[in-house]
Amino acid sequence: MIMCKAEYADKIDRAVFPGLQGGPFLHTIAARAVAFKEASEPDFKTYQEQIVKNAKALAARLIENGFRLVSGGTDNHLMLIDLTSKYEKLSGRQAADHLEDAGIIVNKNTIPFDKRKPRTTSGLRLGTPMITTRGLKEDEMVLVADFIAETLENRQKASIKRQIRRKSQETLRTVPDL
Fold first, then answer.
1. Which stretches of the chain drop beneath a pLDDT of 50?
2. Residue ranges of the Serine hydroxymethyltransferase-like domain (predicted)?
3. Distance CA 168, CA 125 (A)
4. Pseudo-torsion of CA 51, 53, 58, 64, nearest 10°?
5. Looking at 52-154, which runs of residues are DSSP E strands?
6. pTM
7. pLDDT tens, residue by residue, 139-178
């Protein structure tokens, strides 16, 4: 969705439709209406603030655990870990697979000046909206960062990854309902 001043509306409409956009899809229109309604509620601002608090806590603990974040930290919901700072031979793809084994879902991602191919990468991208939605707060972000560090440090040990999976599931069970 593009929001603009009225003076630009016709030019944007001609640039987008019909060339870049097809016909209207009612399910997409309904989803946007729901999203705008949620975003207009006061609780949404509180939720967004918690997402950023969680990201800052996660980033800080990852740094404490010896990881280099490409941006040195975060001011939003995302962060990008440079794996080469700690594990020179571990690719983003491998790290994401190991973390998935431990019940932690992240995305492989290229880093600036990455020497690896985009299918392999040297980085991991993490975001906090989903775990914030599940009710986690800053204290749990410390645990998540520790789970990530422990998993990658013990990536060849399936038993450790199973233990971390159980710990992370238990952490989710102890979080109060929203």
1. 178
2. 6-148
3. 19
4. 170
5. 68-69, 78-82, 107-109, 123-127
6. 0.84
7. 999 999 999 999 999 999 999 999 999 999 998 888 765 4
